[in-house]
Each structure stands twice: as C-alpha cells, then as structure tokens.
Design a protein that fits this description.
Structural class: alpha/beta
Oligomer: single chain
CATH class of the largest domain: Alpha Beta
Largest sheet: 8 strands, parallel
Number of helices: 28
CATH topology of the largest domain: TIM Barrel
Strand content: 5-15%
CATH architecture of the largest domain: Alpha-Beta Barrel
C-alpha cells in the first residue's frame, strides 16, 4: 500500500477571536472601507492556511473561506443575482453580494435555511432566471493565492453541481436536468482551468449524496461526473460526502472520480463497505475524526477503526481526514486558560483535530511506535477527563422516576383549554407580540463583560438589567403590543445562558462557531449529568410583569434546541441527555407558573435541524423530540398558555411532529419564504394557534406597513384570524433600537388596519 495522506475538508473562517465578524460588521457600519475589509479578511484566511501547513496536513483546502456563505459564493461565481437586485442597479459588486444575503432598501434578502442537519445557515440559490456565466474562477484565485503567498499546493474546494442545484429554488417546470445543462459546462471550465494551473487535487462537496436520490438523479450524477472527469483528466477529483453514509452507496462509489470521501463518524459507511466492498481503482478518503463535536478522539480506537477499514478495502491509497469541514467547531482550545484542566484535556477543537489526523497518518506511515508518546499522552488526557465526568447514580434514579410517570400530556385538549386561556388572557383578534429577545446594545455587552470580570457589582448589574427591562416594557406599551417580553438583556445566547445555569454544563470563552453571516454562537459543553439547580429566568420575568397589566411571556429554550446547539459528551445516548434537560426545564416552567406567569414560551428553533438525513432514523428522532418537549411543558395548568418558536426550515416534513408537541401557539420563522408555508395550509388543517413571521429580522431593511399587511392578508386566506398571531420572524437581539421600534410600529399599524377590515366583514 502506498503512503497514507492527511487531508482537511475545511477550516473555520471567523478567526481565533472572531476578527472576521468584527471586520464584516465594521464594513457594514461604514467604519472600514471595502479595501480594508478585504485586507483584514485576507490576513485571517492566510493565518488559517498557515496553521494547517504547520500542522503537517498534506491536502490543505483552499476556497472554503467566505465573506458570508460558501453557497452564496457559488451563486455569485455563476452570476446568479436575483432579478429584484438587478432592477436596483446591482451588478457583481461586493455590495450586491451583501444585499442578496441581508436585503436592501427595496429588495428582500434571499431565503436562508439550515445546511443539512447543522446550525449553519446558507443563502438559498434562486434559479428563476437561469442564464449562468462564470464571472470568476474563484477556486483558482484562492489556489493561486495560497501557492504564491504561502507555498501551499492547495486542494480547491467546490460545492458540487448536484448539491448546489438541489438545495436551490427555481421554477416548478424546470427540472434538475435542465439546470445541469446550464451549469455543468461552467463546472467543466473551472476544472479545466484548475488543471491547466497545475492543481493536483480538487474536492467537490456533494453532501446531497447522503440523502435518497431518484433513479433519474443517479443517472444524471453518473453522466455529470463522466463529463467532469473527461474535462480535466489529469486532475484528481475527491468526491466528498459527509453528515451520514451515502443513501445510494453502490451508485455513488461507482462515479467517475479518483477518490471518494466517506463519513465514518456519522452513519454506517463501514457497514456499507463490508457489505458492498469498495472500488479497487479509487482512493478512499476516510473521515474518522469527528468534525462536528469537540471531544478529543481516542486514538487507540481510531487506529483500530483504520485497521478494520484497511482489512476490508483493497485500495492502493488511503486518505485520513475529518468527517466533514471543521467549520462546525471552534478554532483552538489553546485560548481556554481558565477552564478546568481535566475538562480541557477532553477537548479537541479544529487545530487539535488537525494534530490528531497528522498523528494517525504518521503512525500508519512510519509505524505505531513512531507516535507511541502521542498515544500515551492521549490516553492519559482521556483518563483525566473521565474523572471529572463522574456519572451520578442518584441522577439516574431521579431520571428513571420521572420517566416512569407515563407519557406526558396536558389534561384537556387544545379546543377545551384555549377557552380557559382566552378567559384569563383576554387578548384581541390577531394578538401582536415579539419572539423574545430585544436589542442588546454595546453598553449592555460592556456592562455584562465588566460584571463577569468583577468590575461591576451584582447590585449594579441587576440595576442595569432592570432599567433595560423598564425601558423596553414602556416602549412595548407605547407601541401597543398585546403580549410583552422582558427582552433577555441578561442573556448572551439562548443556549449558552442555560448552559451557565444548569448543572452538567460548562462554557468556553473563545469556543465560537459561525451560525449565519457574521452571527457566531458559543455552544456550551454538556459533559456530565444535567439537572436543575435554581430558578434561571424567574427573577427578570416576574420583575417585567410587575411593570405592566399586559401578559409578559416567560422565555425558555427547549430541550431539543439546547442539545442540538451544544457539544454533547458521547459517553451516554443523546436521548438520555435530552430528557435530563427536559426534566430540568420542567422545574423552571413550574417556577414560572408558580409566580403567576400566564404565558410560557419554550423555543425549539433547532427541532427540524436535528432531523437525521437517513430516512430510517427520522421517526425515532421526532418521537424523542416530541416526548422531550412535552416532558418539559405538559405539567402546567390548562389556563397557562405554552408557546414555541421555530426557525428557517422545511416545516412540511415535520408538520405532524409540530402538532404533536401540543403547544398552544407556535411561531415560525418564514418571512423570506412566506408564501410557501402558507400554501401548505391549504392542504393541511392546523387547529392550534400560529404566528408566521411577518418581517425578516436578519435584514436591516424595515418593511413598510403595506408590505407587512400584504403578508398578513396572504396568511389569512388559509388561516383563520382567530388562530393567527402577528410577530417578527425571530428575536430582535441583533437589531438596533431605532430599526426595532420602526419595524414593530409598522407591524402594529398593519395589524390594526387588518383588524378594522376584519371587523367590517362581520
């Protein structure tokens, strides 16, 4: 067997301390010029490449870096600028690029949705006008940059044509075959130019191949990759799949490429190889280091796995790599200076994962003895980490006692309990509210930072939070919203906040990952048994309720979202951890209700995101998700109203599960694709109450009263006014005060006009 090669599939873009985010937002604010933005982000990109070179990675990805989103980069490379932006005079400038992602004064941003089953959001391509051109060979530019500046013979990364076209939106009469006819010649041109420039390897990402494809799509894939291979016969194509095993394994592994990348962490790629074998004329790129979690790999177990794979695969060459791009994990644990040392021993962020890959590659090339010291250190570190996990028998007993109480459910049906809630709440037709968070100013973040450092006392911090609550309760009253929120000024992030309050969690200082655009989140670490410690949200919510006669919502994050947006220790099942979180939240719900909070919102924006890509696993996942949500919420009185909120998703696939959650009111983030979900209600009866976001908070543009009114009117064609709530499509934390007030005022004004029209119809 030839020498093994180490490879990486993608590196985090944001910089160790989110320098990328700061550069982007400073540019949007006009603080730095476009030239300065390019300079600063180039430095971040080159630093990441240099790190991979220094780590000893053989195949270093280039072109995976982006100024917003890699899918949008692909669209922009092909000149796919939606018509509404062209009408505004936009061309192929950076302003156009950001306008597509964030919206402009007169044009709504392109839809944003989750990248397969991750918390990363991509900008959905629009194929209404299909006349693509190759505006720039972007992979070639980044390859040349790495070669010239760092002497790196990189591996350009390209989003594959099947994945790119299937995740986009286009006219219903235009099938993927027609789209491929337009785009494949451009892909061929890209590959030919890369070959001519001396590129040896190119990585074509096709994560769509882990989903079930039709017979026609599989035939098209065969034809497409034959054409691509013929266009650049001297180029080694690594066809990369990830997030699960290929649903059509035999067809995918037979495509005309030189190497196939498989995920050996998620799914059953090993089982498929044992059952069907692996082509002898191809290189296997084995993704054995988990690219989606942060726990240090057990190197002895990975060596054993590699030995099993080698025994079952008769190939001339192997590539060792992560299971997917390292985009989904933080950059380095080196900066976590204040974390418990034993807990830190158990962690492996992007930089550490590169080292694990290099160690394994060296061990197989030079003999395991050559890395015996590294393996010994790995074993000792894992032993120290295990000592702090310390699973608790009492926690298991408490868990079992709670679960044994039977399937959780409300006492009365929705149709009966909604009457009790209406008597208590006395809300008008089309009640208005917000999703939860309100603008967090620079001052809020500064005060919180000083409080954490001990520079501001607990009393001073609480006073500031209360003053913020008072100010925004008054603003909401002045706007005449019907159901208010306290604003969540005490919270950094909707999951991290609870990670700081519940037992069994810890948080990092620099463990940031990109969620969408410049928005970064810092997932907490769940490393041992989770349980309730003390009330987490009661103080601020109750204080807000003392300031108004209108109902104030209690705001919690649900168990499914907490687990999906955390890094979870893998020593026990996720279902077990999820239900532990649900039991802890159940106690918080009881505390809120005990303190006379009449509406409690338990958000599950990540419910759809966690849905397995493998069809066989979806039912089990949804059943566990519904169970956990009901476990957290079903203990309340029938007069207490339970709300939930969900983010950008393909909701049709989980519609039945949404209904089974048995929440009284659900709000759904749909403003960028409003009509699509509304049309679904024409064929599907939904009996509970629902709010479809009437404007997009991710864009700085402020929709007019007319635009919001049109969105509401469209929804009311299929949803009864007695069921419908009016709200933005997500929390308002990232918007500024002026934007928020103007947008909410337009929302309330639009609602009032609709109410008058509804009243006139009676």
């Amino acid at each position: 067997m030839k020498k093994l090669i180490s490879s990486n599939l993608g590196y985090p873009r944001i910089g160790e301390k989110r320098e990328w985010k700061k550069a982007l937002e400073n540019h949007w604010k006009g603080i730095i010029t476009e030239e300065e933005l390019i300079q600063q982000t180039t430095e971040i990109r080159l630093e990441g490449l240099q790190k991979q070179k220094d780590a000893g990675i053989d195949l270093i990805p280039v072109g995976d870096f982006t100024l917003y989103d890699h899918v949008l980069d692909t669209s922009f490379m092909f000149g796919m600028v939606p018509e509404r932006f062209k009408r505004e005079g936009y061309t192929d400038s950076l302003d156009t690029y950001f306008a597509i992602a964030r919206g402009s004064k007169h044009a709504v941003a392109s839809e944003m949705t989750k990248w397969f089953n991750t918390n990363y959001h991509y900008i959905v391509p629009e194929f209404d006008q299909v006349n693509p051109t190759l505006v720039e060979n972007r992979p070639l530019r980044f390859y040349q940059e790495a070669k010239e500046k760092l002497d790196i013979d990189g591996k350009p990364v390209i989003l594959g044509p099947l994945t790119y076209l299937k995740i986009g939106k286009g006219p219903t009469n235009e099938g993927i075959s027609k789209l491929l006819e337009a785009f494949v010649p451009l892909y061929k041109q890209i590959l030919k130019e890369l070959q001519d420039a001396g590129v040896k390897w190119v990585q074509i990402d096709e994560p769509i191949f882990v989903t079930k494809l039709s017979t026609e799509e599989l035939f098209l894939a065969k034809v497409v990759y034959e054409e691509l291979n013929q266009a650049a016969p001297e180029l080694n194509i690594l066809l990369q799949t990830y997030f699960d095993h290929p649903a059509n394994y035999k067809e995918i592994t037979s495509l005309s490429v030189q190497a196939i990348g498989l995920d050996f962490v998620h799914g059953n790629s090993l089982k498929q190889i044992k059952e069907f074998g692996f082509p002898k004329n191809k290189i296997l790129a084995a993704g054995i280091i988990n690219g989606r979690n942060v726990w240090q790999a057990n190197l002895e177990e990975k060596i054993a796995l590699l030995n099993v794979i080698r025994n079952d695969v008769e190939v001339d060459q192997f590539i060792i790599q992560p299971s997917c791009s390292l985009l989904h994990v933080p950059i380095t644990k080196r900066l976590e200076q204040k974390m418990d040392a034993a807990l830190k021993d158990g962690l492996s962020f992007a930089d550490e994962k590169l080292k694990e890959i290099v160690i394994l590659t060296k061990g197989f090339n030079e003999g395991i003895e050559s890395v015996s010291q590294e393996i010994k250190e790995n074993k000792e570190a894992l032993a120290r980490f295990t000592s702090v996990v310390n699973r608790d028998e009492k926690a298991l007993e408490a868990y079992n006692n709670n679960i044994e109480q039977g399937y959780p459910g409300r006492k009365l049906s929705f149709s009966e309990r909604i009457k009790k809630q209406q008597e208590v709440l006395k809300l008008p037709l089309l009640p208005t509210t917000t999703i939860g968070s309100l603008p967090q100013t620079a001052e809020t973040r500064q005060i919180r930072t000083k409080w954490r450092k001990g520079e501001v006392s607990n009393e001073q911090y609480e006073k500031f939070i209360n003053e913020s609550i008072e100010k925004w309760i008054q603003i909401q009253e002045d706007l005449e919203l019907d159901v208010l929120v306290h604003g969540e000024f005490e919270r950094t992030d909707m999951v991290e906040y609870f990670g700081e309050k519940l037992n069994g969690f810890t948080t990092s200082k620099y463990g940031w990952v990109q969620s969408y655009g410049s928005r970064c989140v810092k997932p907490p670490l769940i490393y041992k048994d989770v349980n309730f410690d003390k009330p987490m949200t009661v103080k601020e919510t109750v204080y807000a309720q003392t300031l108004t006669e209108k109902p104030v919502k209690g705001m919690l994050t649900g168990p499914v979202t907490i687990i999906n947006w955390s890094f979870v220790n893998e020593d026990v099942s996720r279902t077990y951890v999820q239900n532990q979180i649900a039991i802890a939240l159940q106690e918080e719900v009881k505390q809120l209700e005990k303190n006379k909070i009449k509406i409690i919102q338990v958000d599950e924006p990540a419910l759809r995101e966690g849905l397995p890509l493998n069809e066989e696993k979806k039912k089990e996942y949804l059943e566990a998700a519904v169970y956990a949500f009901r476990l957290a919420t079903a203990s309340v009185k029938d007069s207490t109203q339970i709300h939930t909120h969900m983010c950008y998703s393909d909701f049709e696939e989980i519609f039945d599960a949404i209904d089974e959650l048995d929440a009284d009111v659900i709000s759904i983030e749909t403003s960028r694709s409003h009509g699509e979900l509304i049309s679904y209600f024409n064929n599907k009866k939904y009996t509970k109450e629902i709010g479809l976001g009437v404007y997009d908070i991710h864009s700085p543009r402020i929709p007019s009263v007319k635009e919001m009114k049109e969105n509401i009117t469209k929804a009311l064609q299929t949803i009864s006014p007695r069921q419908f709530w009016i709200n933005p499509d997500c929390g308002l934390k990232t918007r500024n005060k002026e934007e928020t007030i103007r947008a909410l005022q337009n929302m309330v004004n639009a609602t009032n006009e609709i109410r008058k029209e509804q009243h006139a119809l009676k």
